[in-house]
Design a protein that fits this description.
mainly alpha; disordered N terminus; 5 helices; about 120 residues; two-stranded antiparallel sheet; about 75% helix
Length: about 120
């Protein structure tokens, strides 16, 4: 089986961008304020982006598929919690605001869709 359409290529690009958003939000308060991210949301972005990057560059197709599904669901969960007004879990601030909600939902939907795409034969 060859690489999946939209899988590893997207993870190579989306992963680093998401990780940079998390690092930027954690290191620069102005970025966190503009994005509406809390420390918990930044941590999710760093971890999710790092895993997506790793899978995109050296993951096997099956691992890329499962990873995209898992990361997609995790990001959708953060976006839905944010939209529902849950901005903190176990003392960690998640996200607040429309920008961070949109980022989480778009990345989440991308991950779920990419994770369920059929592999090329």
């Amino acid at each position: 089986m060859g690489p999946r359409k939209g899988g590893s290529r997207a993870q190579k690009y989306v992963g680093p961008v998401q990780a940079l958003l998390g690092v930027g939000g954690a290191a620069v308060p102005a970025i966190a304020g503009a994005l509406g991210t809390g420390m918990g949301g930044n941590l999710v972005n760093v971890l999710s982006g790092g895993v997506a990057s790793d899978l995109g560059y050296k993951g096997a197709p099956a691992a890329q598929q499962r990873g995209a599904q898992f990361l997609g669901i995790a990001n959708i969960l953060v976006g839905v919690l944010n939209a529902a007004g849950v901005h903190q879990i176990a003392g960690f601030g998640l996200n607040q605001g429309n920008v961070s909600t949109a980022i989480s939902l778009v990345i989440g939907i991308w991950g779920v869709v990419a994770g369920f795409m059929k592999q090329e034969q």
